[in-house]
């Protein structure tokens, strides 16, 4: 059997009620039975005393005269009372004069008279009464009666008590069973609701309220809690759904973006390949006719110089100059394309050394120019050495070119700090430019000076910017007309 | 003098202007009368390996230098180069790639296949003329062939 604390509450309640009523009934019955027995004993004791006194009164003559036969006869009348077990008459000397029954054994009759009075002894009621006449004691009457009446009464009241107890217990059980529901029903309902909530996760169920007592309050509180939980659960589910939706949307978005990136990459690859093909054909197919133009202009000038006047010769010279300029443009464009396509190999590059090389080259090519150079030592950066060389070459060459009209040209290569970031600087004191057009500098074919002032193609800075961008850096310029120009770049 | 002996320069070039300009440049150095021209790659291969009515090959005359354009009809220049350098009999003839292409892959491929020199044709006629005549002089007069 399961321990008491695991019993269902119904059984517990019933058991408690039965235990209490059982205890009360048993105590009551015991009291009843005790009272019965005590009362009955008193009654039979006083009956015996009365009878003894009557018998003693009748026996005075027989004792006075020591008449044994009379005494025996008087005692023999006791046979009409079936409860009488034994009796004896003792004379003054304490000798037995007569007994009942006549042949009473020694264990029934004490040898000497007992002290006066009545008592229960060995399942019998025994007593001694003085036999006296006119104040003179003649002897003693001893009498013994069984206690069958008492035990009968005891048995009867016991039976009555048991029957009453049984009936009362049955009634108590029935009542308990009927009434415990008042207490257990709301608790069971609560328990059932709680089980439903926890097993089905259904927060919409409510415990039925069965009264306004403490259990009713408990039910109310429980239901209120459920309402709150249900609200929170609903909110939570809403958030979860929203989140799921958002995740789905974001995933979709990412996939789309990924797809777009892949498409872009594919397009870029295709564009690059196209550019390759384009560059190839430009380099091949555009140059050949240019060579013809230049070549045959030359042929004309050489072989037919005599037939041409000065204007004709000038025109041919212009044709040649134009074709050569176009060749330069093509070459520069090809360089730009190459910069875009070239694979990057990153290493630590000694920019100062690179700048010194370029300057040396410039001085060798135009030894008649005297430009003052200031190259900061030890400038290094991570990048592709070939590309960085092209970039630096363009910037220094520009400085060289745009200081051509300056009487004391100066060019500087250094590094500086711009908003906590290291930037390299190429500065000159040449022609400069109008800051209004600063953003145009880096466009392909964009020039701020006319070909008459300074010749060029306008591809150089576009190439530089592409190189810097490919390195993840930025480039920008500052300048003023006739006050020089400064180019900054980060890597 | 046997006319075949005069073939000292073989020019493989499809562009008539370039042929004429090359001729002009060589003429200025008196090198043009020993020039033979193939106008596409197939013709050049025939010149050396074909059964076509080409006396030059049968007689066993080999040019002293080959000027090879890359962008040729039918069989392109790199293929011609590969055939020439892959054959015992023609391997030793110096091949100068003379082309408009300044593209790195072309240059690399040409040298890999065994070109002896790679020259980008300048657009400027004077520069072009100088380059062609210089290389003619170098390979014909300065350079000493193995035989
Ligand atoms: N150091 C400089 N000083 C003044 N202007 C410059 C300088 N560098 C570049 N610029 C201006 O930026 C333009 C674009 O330069 P770039 O792209 O190098 O072309 P290019 O030098 O062939 O003209 C130049 O035409 C010139 O107007
Ligand atoms: Mg420039």
What does this structure look like?
The complex is a heterodimer of chains A (491) and B (147). In chain A, 58% of the residues lie in helices and 16% in strands. Chain A has helices at 9-64, 68-76, 148-200, 214-303, 310-341, 351-365, 385-402, 460-470; strands spanning 84-91, 96-100, 117-121, 124-133, 136-146, 347-350, 372-375, 380-383, 410-418, 421-428, 475-479, 485-489. In chain A, strands 2-1-5-4-3 form a five-stranded antiparallel β-sheet. In chain A, strand 9 (410-418) and strand 10 (421-428) form a beta hairpin. In chain A, helix 3 packs parallel to helix 4, helix 6 (351-365) crosses helix 7 (385-402) and helix 7 packs antiparallel against helix 8. Chain A is rod-shaped and about 215 Å long. The mean pLDDT of chain A is 89. Chain B has a single domain, classed as Rossmann fold (3-Layer(aba) Sandwich). Chain B is 42% helix and 14% strand. Chain B is built from six helices and five strands, in the order βαβααβαβαβα. The two termini of chain B are 21 Å apart. The relative contact order of chain B is 0.18. The complex binds adenosine-5'-diphosphate and magnesium ion.
């Amino acid at each position: 059997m399961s321990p008491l604390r695991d019993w269902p509450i119904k059984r517990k309640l019933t058991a408690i009620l039965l235990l209490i009523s059982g205890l009360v009934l048993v105590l009551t019955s015991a009291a009843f039975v005790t009272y019965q027995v005590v009362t009955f004993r008193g009654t039979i004791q006083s009956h015996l005393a009365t009878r003894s006194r009557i018998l003693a009164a009748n026996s005075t003559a027989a004792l006075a005269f020591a008449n044994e036969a009379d005494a025996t006869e008087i005692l023999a009348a006791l046979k009409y009372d079936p409860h009488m077990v034994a009796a004896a008459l003792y004379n003054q000397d304490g000798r037995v004069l007569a007994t009942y029954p006549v042949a009473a054994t020694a264990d029934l009759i004490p040898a000497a008279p007992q002290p006066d009075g009545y008592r229960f002894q060995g399942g019998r009621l025994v007593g001694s009464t003085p036999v006296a006449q006119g104040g003179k004691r003649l002897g003693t009457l001893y009498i013994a009666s069984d206690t069958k009446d008492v035990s009968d009464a005891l048995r009867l009241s016991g039976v009555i008590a048991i029957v009453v107890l049984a009936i009362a217990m049955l009634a108590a059980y029935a009542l308990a069973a009927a009434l415990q529901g008042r207490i257990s029903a709301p608790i069971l309902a609560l328990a059932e609701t709680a089980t439903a909530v926890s097993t089905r996760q259904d927060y919409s169920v409510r415990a039925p309220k069965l009264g306004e007592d403490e259990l009713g309050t408990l039910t109310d509180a429980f239901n209120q809690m459920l309402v709150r939980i249900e609200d929170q659960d609903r909110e939570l589910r809403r958030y979860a759904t929203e989140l799921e939706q958002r995740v789905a949307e974001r995933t979709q978005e990412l996939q789309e973006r990924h797809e777009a990136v892949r498409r872009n990459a594919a397009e870029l690859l295709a564009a690059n390949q196209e550019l390759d093909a384009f560059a190839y054909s430009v380099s091949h197919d555009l140059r050949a006719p240019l060579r013809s133009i230049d070549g045959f202009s030359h042929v004309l000038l050489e072989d037919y110089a005599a037939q041409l006047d000065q204007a004709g010769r000038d025109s041919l010279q212009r044709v040649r100059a134009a074709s050569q300029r176009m060749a330069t443009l093509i070459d520069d464009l090809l360089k730009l394309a190459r910069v875009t396509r070239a694979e990057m190999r990153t290493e630590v590059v000694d920019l100062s050394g690179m700048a010194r090389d370029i300057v040396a080259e410039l001085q060798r090519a135009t030894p008649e120019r005297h430009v003052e150079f200031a190259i900061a030592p030890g400038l290094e950066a991570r990048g592709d050495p070939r590309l960085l060389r092209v970039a630096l070459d363009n910037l220094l060459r520009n400085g060289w070119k745009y200081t051509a009209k300056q009487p004391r040209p100066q060019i500087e290569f250094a590094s500086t700090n711009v908003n906590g970031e290291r930037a390299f600087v190429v500065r000159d004191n040449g022609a400069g430019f109008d800051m209004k057009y600063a953003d145009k500098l880096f466009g392909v074919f964009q020039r701020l000076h006319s070909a008459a002032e300074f010749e060029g193609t306008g591809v150089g800075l576009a190439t530089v910017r592409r190189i810097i961008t490919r390195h993840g850096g930025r480039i920008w310029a500052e300048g003023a007309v006739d006050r020089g120009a400064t180019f900054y770049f980060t890597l | 003098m046997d006319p075949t002996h005069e073939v000292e320069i073989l020019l493989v070039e499809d562009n008539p202007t370039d042929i004429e300009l090359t001729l002009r440049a060589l003429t200025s150095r008196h090198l043009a009368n020993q020039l033979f021209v193939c106008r596409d790659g197939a013709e050049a291969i025939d010149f050396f390996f074909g059964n076509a009515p080409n006396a030059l090959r049968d007689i066993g005359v080999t040019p002293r230098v080959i000027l090879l354009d890359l962008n040729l009809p039918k069989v392109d220049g790199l293929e011609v180069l590969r055939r020439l350098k892959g054959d015992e009999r023609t391997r030793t003839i110096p091949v100068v790639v003379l082309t408009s292409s300044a593209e790195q892959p072309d240059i690399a491929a040409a040298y890999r296949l065994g070109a002896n020199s790679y020259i980008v044709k300048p657009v400027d006629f004077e520069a072009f003329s100088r380059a062609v005549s210089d290389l003619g002089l170098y390979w014909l007069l300065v350079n000493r062939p193995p035989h």
